[in-house]
Fold this sequence. Notes:
The chain is α/β, with parallel strands linked by helices and 193 residues long. The protein has one domain: Maf protein (Alpha-Beta Complex). The protein has 5 helices and 7 strands, in the order E-H-E-H-E-E-H-E-E-E-H-H. Strands 1, 2, 3, 4, 5, 6 and 7 form a 7-stranded mixed β-sheet that branches. The mean pLDDT is 92.
Amino acid sequence: MKKLVFATNNKHKTQEIRQALEGQYEVLNLQDIGCTDDIPETADTFEGNASLKSQYVVAHFNLDCFADDSGLEVDALNNEPGVYSARYSGSRDSLENINLVLEKLKNQSNRKARFKTVISLVQDGVNHFFEGTVEGTIRTELSGSAGFGYDPVFQPEGYAITFAEMSMAEKNQISHRAIALKKMIDFLNTNSR
C-alpha cells in the first residue's frame, strides 16, 4: 500500500482522512514520521498555508506529503474567520471561536456561510492544489456533539441538521475536506506511478 504523509497532528482530521482513504493508502501523520516541529502557518490564504506545511515535510523528511488548510467563511463577516478559523477568538478553544461568530452574527439576517478546504499535495517535487467547499448557514445555537470546530453551528445546504449531528460517515460524504480529498484521490489514481 502506498504511503502518504498528511501534515497534521489533528487526530480528528487524521481519523477522517484515514477513513476516507481506507484500503487505498496508508496515511501517516506528523507524529508517525517523528515531526515535532511547529510548522508555520503564516500565509493569508488557505492555499498558502497548505503549501507551507506540505513543502516543509518534503524538505525536511523527503516524503511525498499533502496538507490542508480549512476554515469557515461567513458572508456577513466579510468571509471571516477564514484562515484564522482555528484561533478566531485569540485561542484555539472551539467554543470560544463559535461564540464569537454567534455574537458577531447576533443582529444579522444573512447567515450564509461555507466551509472551505484547500489541499496541497507535493509529489515528485510538484505542488498540486485541490479545493472543496460546502455551502450552508450558521445556526443561532449549537446542536450536536459529533465533529469538531464550528460543526455544531454549521448546517449544510439541503440538510436540516448540523455537521455535529451527522455521523462521521455521513459528514465524509459531503464535507469540504471530503470534496477536496476526492479530487486528490482521483488525481492520484489517474497519475499513479
